[in-house]
Amino acid sequence: MLKIAFDPIYIHSVPLNHRFPMSKYELIPGQLLHEGLITEENLFSPAMVGEEVILQTHDEVYWAHLRDLTLPAKEQRRTGFELSERLIERERCIAQGTINGCRYAFEYGIAFNIAGGTHHAGTNWGEGFCMLNDQAIAANYLLNNNLTSSILIIDLDVHQGNGTAQIFETEPRVFTFSMHGANNFPYRKERSDLDIPLPDGTSDHEYLSILKNTLPQIIAQQKPEFIFYLSGVDVLATDKLGKLSLSKQACKERDSLVFEQCIANKIPVQVSMGGGYSPDIRDIIDAHCNTFRLAADLFF
After folding, report:
1. Tally of CB atoms within 10 A around 213
2. 274 with 234: CB under 8 angstroms?
3. Is the pTM for the entire model greater than 0.70?
4. Closest of 158, 117, 148 to residue 241, by C-alpha
5. What percent of the chain has pLDDT over 90?
6. One CATH from 3.40.800.20, 3.40.850.10, 3.20.20.10, 2.40.280.10 for 3-299
7. Are 295 and 2 in contact (CB under 8 A)?
């Protein structure tokens, strides 16, 4: 069964000026239900992740500032949000949704978090609309509970997964792979285990050729027992923040390459949706929904 964590409280926690790009968290499940691809049984609403789990990944002082809404103004601006109790609740629910998704992925092969992909959050900082790093928290949860011993994080959002890279820079059990725009946020990059920075305007053929030649090699060398996939659609040519030139079809083929590798190697995968900032919300929703459509076709 395709299991999907959804984001029921974003509308109450996100400032009005951020609602347009974030409204996808409500529209994606609505579209999937409308198409009949899923039913309500496929959706689950997670509780808040516990503090003890957060502290396996994030610095205690940083977490206390978030929890108590005392993060200094400069650091709040770096996140892109004004802190509120509901916003922190939402971040905690997103992280727990990814953890729950891992358990469903072990059972069904794949699971999704409609939110998540908060890869700019490092051990002791937040930025770029990311405060708690959901996939890093979930990866540490799996390791600390002996649910896996080898993890691959595939980050194909247009922005480098700098927070994820920093969190796992000394953790040999987690291999971080980020393929992203070279001249895009964050302008100070961290070092992933493998970074592939792409020039502005990278086309469908170039992008897919690089991924096709790289990903099977990583899996063969690292032999991961679990995969996290960040499937941002800000790689689209229509994206106002992206700087790459991928079509929706290429974005879909990108997802297919990842999923086919997971299936061929019998590796469970948790998917967080990441970014998407095309001016027409329909482009964002359709590209994200393609990821779900592919999963339904390939896994079930």
Report:
1. 9
2. yes
3. yes
4. 158
5. 87
6. 3.40.800.20
7. yes
